[in-house]
Amino acid sequence: MALVCYLVFLGFPLLWLLSTAFKSPQELGSVDPTWLPRHPTLDNFRAALDQQPLVRSGFNSLIVAGVAALVSVTVAVPAAYVMVRYRSLIGRVGTGWVLVSQMFPFVLIIIPLFLVLKNVRLIDSLPGLIVVYVVWNLPFALWMLQGYVKAVPASLEEAAAMDGAGRLRTLRSVVLPLLTPGLVATLMFSFVTAWNEFFFALVLLKSPEKQTMSVILTHFLGAEGAADLGPLAAASVLATVPSLLFFAFLQRRLVGGMMNGAVKG
Length: 265
Hints:
Structural class: mainly alpha
């Protein structure tokens, strides 16, 4: 029962968003709202695409989130391996940095971050935003992957070493296949975090052609906070689709990696 209530709690906003996206302006303005649209229409989607550059902003978000996720995982894998297998002062300091870095709110770091990016001429650029997302995602990616690395038996690495495999080959041929579930989970987390992020994108990107989807969605709000509800709901649905497709694509790899790791383990 508790699980059903939790699923309803999670699914209700999405279902209501879908219902709103397909309602006509007359239904949206009705004082007697309905759960499902009486006369479904695609006018809200047409209006959203006409009013704002959703395709271009979605492409920007896809580039930023995809590259940031790949770089974060690529850097985090060897770093997590070293922090787990080589216990030292550097490893303990790194673990402390992982925990402390998550305690700082965005507001405290945005001004020095803006000044640093300005000095290196990365303000109002997608590469600059990618760097920010990589730095912001890396601590949690490290923390996630450390748990998966600890679960890999050290005896497998010792057996590979006895067969003449070096550290790099052991990491590539023995450890990485067993880390597939962790890599997929970390990649999904990093992608969704970067895709949904709003504050950094709002402050660091000024050119309309470089803005991401999360920023473009705020353009459906009027000067006094009045929302163009139908197009906003339609645009929100469109903004949700890429992350859902990305999750569905990687979910197969996640299950396959768990089965592969179970067999190899």
